[in-house]
Design goal:
Length: about 375
């Protein structure tokens, strides 16, 4: 592992990098290629950053901060014009080429066998030939996304949407226009560019867009400086907040308290900024309350009836080896899952997976038997 070269690219000294190997940086030897990954942010290096044996670095994709009061946030954060793109609801990947092999990195810096196979299937062959240092930052979405299954996008399986371009060994991304130009030239799907606006007029336009997206079950928007002069912001629909809560309350003991509180607080700020009428606010309250109570009751009743609390997902693979590797990948990520028998289909196999939600299972059973909270 060429740590000296990697240290220079990371912008830290070699001794600091070596010391981080004892705490923050973990080795991942499987699947190939072997790499080091940052489990947490350290010394200005994003979590999910990976170092390959050659010393090449793929930086972690930066976390996007959230606007709570939209108009003041835009005024404070952006210098002038801003671009608005749709925020997709799936899992974040960085796709690149290592020794000629296309791999997909998760946000945490693991090579995901399933996402890598999807990338090789979806992306045009030779997309990295002209620039092997290219990193495609995007979202995988669809009903056969085993992390975040959603049926709101135009695919029956899983698809990839590009939202940013980066290069190995550099923290910089290439900006909105270059990203969409690249997508057009290479016939790669990209997140919808919904418009460019001066910041003084953007809040009302984004509000209308958010309401339209919400009615379609979509998540929200990412707001960017077209040239990435300042970090991006995100802003989500009420429907997305409530969908998140409905999912989390189904597995209530497996999510941190902040997950629940932050989404409820977003609803309050959005309601105030949008100057909602009493009827609009009641409708929001009903939507919020139902997203909390209904899935929670369903979970309790299922456990009371003797059922296990599971999340059912499915994947479509060309090779059974990919399914076996993905099962191991879930296990090393701390997820217990039962893989069903492969079902042959035209282009490979369909695998149905039951992800066991252990903490919620155990807690619900204990409470039903009389344990105190």
């Amino acid at each position: 592992m060429n740590l000296e070269r990697a240290a220079k690219r990371l912008g830290i000294n070699l001794q600091r990098l070596q010391s981080l190997q004892e705490t923050i940086i973990k080795t991942s030897s499987w699947p190939e290629p072997r790499l080091l990954r940052f489990e947490k942010e350290a010394s200005g290096v994003e979590a999910g950053t990976v170092i390959f044996e050659s010393g090449e670095v793929v930086f972690g994709y930066p976390k996007i901060r959230r606007a709570m009061m939209l108009a003041p946030a835009l005024e404070k954060h952006f210098p002038d014009t801003l671009a608005v793109e749709e925020k997709m609801n799936g899992h974040n990947v960085r796709i690149t080429s290592v020794d000629g092999e296309v791999i997909a990195l998760t946000r945490g810096g693991f090579v995901c066998p399933y996402s890598s196979e999807v990338a090789r299937k979806i992306l045009p062959e030779g997309i990295f030939d002209a620039d092997p240092d290219l990193v495609l930052c995007g979202e995988m979405v669809g009903p056969e996304n085993p992390y975040v299954p959603k049926s709101i996008y135009p695919t029956d399986t899983i698809d990839f949407y590009l939202f940013d371009l980066a290069c190995k060994n550099s923290k910089k991304t290439l900006g909105v226009h270059k990203t969409h130009q690249f997508a057009d030239e290479h016939r790669v799907k990209s997140t919808a560019l919904l418009g460019e606006f001066h910041k003084d007029r953007a809040a009302e336009k984004i509000k209308r867009t958010i309401k339209q997206l919400g009615r379609r079950g979509r998540e929200g928007v990412v707001i960017k400086d077209p040239e990435n002069k300042v970090p991006a912001l995100k802003y989500t629909s009420s429907e997305a907040n409530c969908n998140d809560l409905a999912f989390a309350f189904r597995y209530y003991n497996d999510y941190a308290l902040d997950f629940f509180i932050s989404r409820a607080v977003r609803e309050g700020f959005q309601s105030v900024e949008w100057l909602e009428t009493p009827d609009e606010r009641k409708a929001r309250a009903l939507r919020l309350g139902e997203s909390i109570l209904m899935p929670l009751v369903e979970t309790i009743e299922k456990k009371q009836a003797g059922e296990n609390i599971v999340q059912k997902v499915q994947i479509r693979v060309r090779s059974l080896q990919t399914a076996r590797e993905f099962e191991f990948h879930l296990r090393r990520s701390g997820i217990r899952a039962i893989f069903g028998s492969p079902e042959p289909i035209d282009d490979g196999y369909l695998i149905r997976i039951s992800k066991l939600i252990m903490s919620t299972n155990d807690k619900t059973q204990a409470l039903l038997e009389g344990e105190m909270w």
